[in-house]
Amino acid sequence: xxxxxxxxxxxxxxxxxxxxxxxxxxxxxxxxxxxxxxxxxxxxxxxxxxxxxxxxxxxxxxxxxxxxxxxxxxxxxxxxxxxxxxxxxxxxxxxxxxxxxxxxxxxxxxxxxxxxxxxxxxxxxxxxxxxxxxxxxxxxxxxxxxxxxxxxxxxxxxxxxxxxxxxxxxxxxxxxxxxxxxxxxxxxxxxxxxxxxxxxxxxxxxxxxxxxxxxxxxxxxxxxxxxxxxxxxxxxxxxxxxxxxxxxxxxxxxxxxxxxxxxxxxxxxxxxxxxxxxxxxxxxxxxxxxxxxxxxxxxxxxxxxxxxxxxxxxxxxxxxxxxxxxxxxxxxxxxxxxxxxxxxxxxxxxxxxxxxxxxxxxxxxxxxxxxxxxxxxxxxxxxxxxxxxxxxxxxxxxxxxxxxxxxxxxxxxxxxxxxxxxxxxxxxxxxxxxxxxxxxxxxxxxxxx
Length: 449
Known about the structure:
This protein has 449 residues and is mainly alpha-helical.
């Protein structure tokens, strides 16, 4: 227990690692856990709405055509497409920010620390894909869904682990988060490379050109967020027209966001002290109100520029992504109509079985086996206060593949029957994986302190 108290003291200290890395990540997991509850409610509402008497209203609403005409920019898509192509770009922007933070300031910047979750993520992508292909072998159209069981839903997986409280060590939680982020990198690569059907090199070149303009603007010191919002919107539209999925624009912009502040800690203290030294009570009484306002605004500017754009944007956008955008996505994509459908036959179809088995068996076997290999080969060690039983539980939690799995499903299939079978496999597989993770972690002994 003495070890535990020392660790708690270290965690709450102002040292670089706990203050700049561990505590922000723990706050991140709290948002994800709460967002997972909202996400679950949205999925249930979608299922209920889709199965209301006369239930065509669900599909009719989300298939309504909408158009945006801004002269040279014209976009015409369904409500569902606007959500999947537009709003989800913001979700993937947050994913890009998370990846950038981990690569620049987190464990993924150290090869030794990154190897364990990286190995686990590779196994957790490879085995589910192979298991899925084994179930649908010979069905050309069905095989397009091989990327579906590869994904890990951070919100749900972190939410399940959060139910266990202190039974799961901080190190194990951070391992799961790092694994999910590496998993996201893999999913993004799969979407960009394998789910792009037609490619317009002219529009792709335009998108790359805008990204180069953003990079140059960063280097010359342009700090206005509004400037980058306009260029980011242009990049999104260019990618939409290019054939590469438009959400990749969000990832690219997230990865390009500066991870360091304009002012260092010492510069912040010096500038703030200098401003406040002019702000004593006697001087303030004789100073004009506009001078006082100018000093206050200068202090606000210094404080703002002493926080990295990455941290500022993640703090501002992440709650919107978790509590608004992802639930709206679930509402638009999780509705399956069961009227006239033989649920038993659908659940035992090769696609549903491939997705469900891939998420449960593929993730547990793949993640655990590859983590074991990494440890045996000397590429990493288990997180502090974590046992192999905990790692198996984390592997099961990684099998909850809701959001990104649904996203890939919409890209992979156009046939409504196959689409619904894949979604059933996601629901059942994710539910089984979540329950399995909870039972393993709940019944496992507390990690030694």
